[in-house]
Amino acid sequence: MIRLKINRVDYNNNNTPILSKIEIEKYAREVLADYKPHLLKEPGSIGYQHFLENYLELTLLFRDIYNENPKNPIFGALNFDKCTVKVFDRENERIKAELMPADSVIIDNFVTQSGREGMANFNGAHEGAHYLIHSGITFPAKTRRILCHHENVEDSKIGSTENRTNKWIEFQANYFAASFTMFNGTFIPLVNDYLRKHNIWTRSITLGVDDDLDILGNDLLPEYIAEIYDVSKQAAFNKLKTTGFIDAQIY
What are the angstrom distances between the C-alpha of 103 and each of 45, 110, 178, 229? Predict the structure, then answer.
């Protein structure tokens, strides 16, 4: 496992690492080269279960994670320490506190339902990113754990920079996951080839000006990318935006 050398932290915000996008991309490439080097040349799935359990040597668990706000469900959790997590016990139809081991990842059962394989794969990479990047954070609570809600993992503003708070570490995890699951070295040539085959010769697709381009940019291209890399359509769309292939500013 390749450990990240962190040179700068924000001491005023829980020792959160200060990382540029370039630094995150470079680290994601190093991890990918160590984990599955063939993905540096051939687009494909990272296989999140193998990545978490065999490469990072984490305990992987699947539960119905309880959250008081159903509009923003918890997709996953990373436990650096042994701790209790509220889950829904479907068999007995009750909420219970379950003791989880240290160095464990919990993936919510919603994410693993049929048809959401890409969501689970990207979410797993997101949780792995927290483990790789954020082990040195000073958590305000006694228990060192990170709960990742829907808005954190499927954030449409994945390419934006936030202040160095919880949103900042979620941005870092998302940006790593996007760089790791959709490595630029294969992603950019793949998208360029797709656009040329569809007679698109501009650098980016501007949404909101042409119905055919809207269908291509909103649906066909993200679905194509999502299938090849085994990620969610939303993650693929976000990556297309951050790499400049989709311009949605006026949309």
Answer: 24, 22, 22, 26
- Find tokens 């016990």 and name the residue: 89
Whether the per-residue pLDDT at 53 is higher than 80: the answer is yes
Residue type, 200: I
Q: Are residues 205 and 150 in the same domain?
A: no
Q: Which tokens belong to 109?
A: 């059962």
Helix, strand, coil fractions of the chain, as percent rounded to 5: 45, 20, 40
- Tell me which residue of 20, 12, 3 sits closest to 131, measured CA to CA: 3
Q: Do 137 and 54 fall into the same domain? A: yes
Contact between residue 186 and residue 175 where contact means Cβ atoms under 8 Å apart:
no
Q: Which is higher by pLDDT, 189 or 211?
A: 189
Judgement on whether residues 132 and 208 belong to the same structural domain of the protein: no
Domain region containing 35: 14-181
